[in-house]
Automatic annotation (TrEMBL):
It comes from the Bacteria. Belongs to the TatC family. The Tat system comprises two distinct complexes: a TatABC complex, containing multiple copies of TatA, TatB and TatC subunits, and a separate TatA complex, containing only TatA subunits. Substrates initially bind to the TatABC complex, which probably triggers association of the separate TatA complex to form the active translocon. Part of the twin-arginine translocation (Tat) system that transports large folded proteins containing a characteristic twin-arginine motif in their signal peptide across membranes. Together with TatB, TatC is part of a receptor directly interacting with Tat signal peptides. Keywords: Cell membrane, Membrane, Protein transport, Translocation, Transmembrane, Transmembrane helix, Transport. The lineage of its organism: Bacteria, Pseudomonadati, Pseudomonadota, Gammaproteobacteria, Moraxellales. It is found in: Cell membrane; Membrane. The chain crosses the membrane at residues 37-55, 93-112, 124-151, 171-198, 210-226, 232-253. InterPro entries: TatC. This is Sec-independent protein translocase protein TatC. It comes from Acinetobacter terrae. HAMAP family: TatC. It is a multi-pass membrane protein.
Length: 259
């Protein structure tokens, strides 16, 4: 009995990949993931040790906004014996992690890419690139705009009888928290677009709830920033504007779908 012609046609490459993924055991997936993780750890170690000789200069660059605001008679202090070594050491690891972030996301993308359809791959690449760019933009905004303004406010309101001398570990923790808060906050356009793309919300629903979202931005900023009005405003307003950016691009996507 002859085989039907449709059974003799070659299987498309995408179907072959999906079939191979389904046939792969969980241990094989774990081995692939381990290979990507080894590459990530390897790059982190290389960057960390390459940057280690410049750790003190990196910390001086981080502390420049504070040192510019301190009175002439004040300086930064170390309340722990190991602080002069550990603070630049921690900052060095954070810088290495930030520099390696595009490679880390690329490795994670390479791991999940075979399981995605072509349409999902087309949408994922701009979203990944946008998320990395916005994260770096958030850190840059925090360092060049928010941090000097916040430090100026706190030092200007200190009593005249008190000489502000900040511990280097406390300052590092404060800066890292601020950088991460602004970095993740700048991901709001990406989150908004993803919610629209998966159909969880529509732009019309977001427009109707805009007033509540704006209030929510100020509410969130009040809890994740230092306890002053300047910090809250400098985070809440960018959150609102970034939401409007995501809403704008979401409307373009919906119009493109309708067309």
């Amino acid at each position: 009995m002859s085989t039907p012609i449709e059974n003799q046609l070659p299987i498309p490459l995408a179907d072959q990949q999906s079939s191979n993924l389904e046939e792969m055991p969980i241990t094989q997936h774990l081995m692939v993931l381990r290979r990507h993780l080894f590459k990530i750890v390897g790059l982190l170690l290389v960057l960390f040790f390459c940057l280690l000789p410049f750790a003190n200069q990196t910390y001086q660059l981080l502390s420049e906004p504070l040192r510019a605001q301190l009175p002439v008679s004040s300086s930064m202090i170390a309340t722990d014996v190991t602080a002069t070594f550990m603070a630049p050491f921690k900052l060095n690891f954070f810088v290495a992690l930030m520099l390696a972030m595009p490679f880390i996301i690329f490795q994670l993308w390479s791991f999940v890419k075979p399981a995605l359809y072509e349409k999902e791959k087309t949408l994922a690449m701009p979203l990944l690139f946008g998320s990395i760019s916005l994260f770096y933009a958030g850190i840059a905004f925090a360092y060049f705009v928010a941090l000097p303004s916040i430090l100026h406010f706190f030092i200007s309101v200190s009593p005249e009888t008190v000489a502000p001398m900040t511990d280097i570990n406390s300052y590092l923790a404060f800066c890292l928290k601020l950088f991460l808060v602004f970095g993740f906050t700048f991901e709001i356009p990406i989150i908004t677009l993803i919610l629209i793309l998966i159909g969880l919300v529509s732009t019309q629903q977001l427009v109707e709830k805009r007033r509540f979202i704006v209030v929510g931005c100020f509410f969130v900023a009040m809890f994740v920033t230092p306890p002053d009005a300047i910090s809250m405003i400098m985070l809440a307003i960018p959150m609102w504007l970034l939401f409007e950016m995501g809403l704008f691009f979401g409307k373009l996507i919906e119009k493109r779908r309708a067309a």
